[in-house]
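Repro case for the chain-ordering regression, as requested:
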Amino acid sequence: MELSSYLQFFISGLTVGSAYGLTALGFTIIFNTTGVINFAQGEFVMIGGMLSVFLVRLPGIDLLPAILLAVAITTAIGALIERFTIRPVKNASVINLIIITIGVSILARGLAMLWWGKDTFALPHFSGITPINILGAFILPQSLWILAITLTLLVILKVFFTHTIFGKGMLACSFDRKAAWLVGIGVEKMVLFSFMISAFVGAVGGAILAPITMTSFDVGILLGLKGFAACIVGGLGNPFGAAAGGLILGVLESFGAGLVSSAYKDAITFIILLLLLFIKPSGLFGRADTERV
Amino acid sequence: MSGFKKNAAGLTAFALLVLVLPYLLPNEYYVNTLIFAFLNAIIVVGLNLLMGYAGQISLGHGAFYGLGAYTSAIATATYGLPMGAGLVLGIAVAVVAAYLIGIPTLKLTGHYLAMATLGIGVIAYIFFNQTIELTGGPNGFTGIPRLKLFGYEFESDLSYYYLVGGVLTLVVLFSLNLIDSKLGRALRAIHTSEKAAQVSGIDIARFKLFIFVLSAAFAGFAGVLYAHYLGFVAPSSFGFHFSVTLIVMSVLGGMANVWGGVAGAVFLTVLPEFLRAFEDIESIIYGGILIVCVMFLPEGIAGGITKLTGFRPGGRKADAEK
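-- result from build under test --
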């Protein structure tokens, strides 16, 4: 096989991997402040994509305002979910929190199906569909958009977490909630923020990916799963590991589909996930940590 | 023996109910529905042990159900093995799969098993769909013989109903006794505090693994019975959707309650027969049940009844009392 095919696989892997990475980032942000794995994370991606599709069809709304509005609404939904399902049960066991977020996720899916039906939808590409030829590989302009927006988001989040008082407060919660509370950080507010940021990141991912991979009411399940797999690859709790994990999974999946079998494309991710759980559960970039009693 | 005595009344009542139920129903179709309800109940009782007592969640029990069903179907229909061998192989494959996933993940926290089982569910579903020569792929696997054990073929729906009802009763009996055993007490200790349990000398990983494998065995068994009842299996019966349905049944009935599991499974299997628009709003109902039950009724129907009446139908002491 030629170099150009490999480049092609690599770029399309990075494109899809960005979506996994953004989903993984969402998981990590919530996990860090609350210790909850939000099984509804994939639904944020679905809602972001589907809302964009339907808002842009309304008369008088262009693509950019539609996407911004969709992202804003999804962020608000994230806040509502935290306020009404997570905060009231904050002392619940892990298993109960998992069940609640699963409940939220299938409820969201059910409502989306009722409103928008079972069809698959595509969003218009941001800047046309004329492929760009790079070293013999054909790359859609949308892929460049996806990569650029993902990188921008990562940089913004990095700055947010290390240079703003809110970001530092959230990081403090992830280290030790009680200590954070003692030094005067509003932990409840931080948890609310973490859900909003996660929803925001997920919705952006959903909107930028919708032109290429299409979207439907049930895309959240698989995206959520792969996003979580990306978290494990990068080491659960490490935001940039999660983003990197997403890109790695995307590329592996793309090569697996191209070189081995596309029928088993989705299985590849999970086989990697299971292998990693067997061999190195702390992730590729994580250190094996000892649990505190 | 005391455990048996305590549960004897409930079990006898249940066995009698199973016995007379077909004569109380208006027509044979409901017997068919009840068979599916009981099959689901067998899986949910196992899932209850895992979720309510071991405090772990599996999002892939549909896969173990499917592994049982497909293994026995292929063993008997494709390779012509005797029914008994199909039954044993079906359960064995589910058990081995659960064992292999359980070893690495149960040592980690709850999230890992949830995701690993979800992953297994997806892999199994893809596998059932793609290995067309073996499983028939998306079109399904046809021509599975009716169950025949010790020379008796369970040909009528009624005989199959009694078989499945009998298996369910035994599964319930076994589970109730398990909870009252030393192992059951260990599991409850794990659920309350893993650290405390570990410090008092309980091998947490081993106990959790045992329950996980046991629940997969129940699911595999149910799968075998399902395949040889319907005569046809297709991947869509064993996907993520079914795994979630099982969890909804368990949560609705009450996770830490064996009878609650049976009630939840029977209720949710029969419900679609009465709700014509069920298919469209199924997800909304299921999602709503999960959220509302965990937030307001953490012990499910069974726990709710206990609280209202003070009567405890064979479950463990309500958490609220501590």
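Ordering looks correct now. Chain B is about 75% helix and 0% strand.
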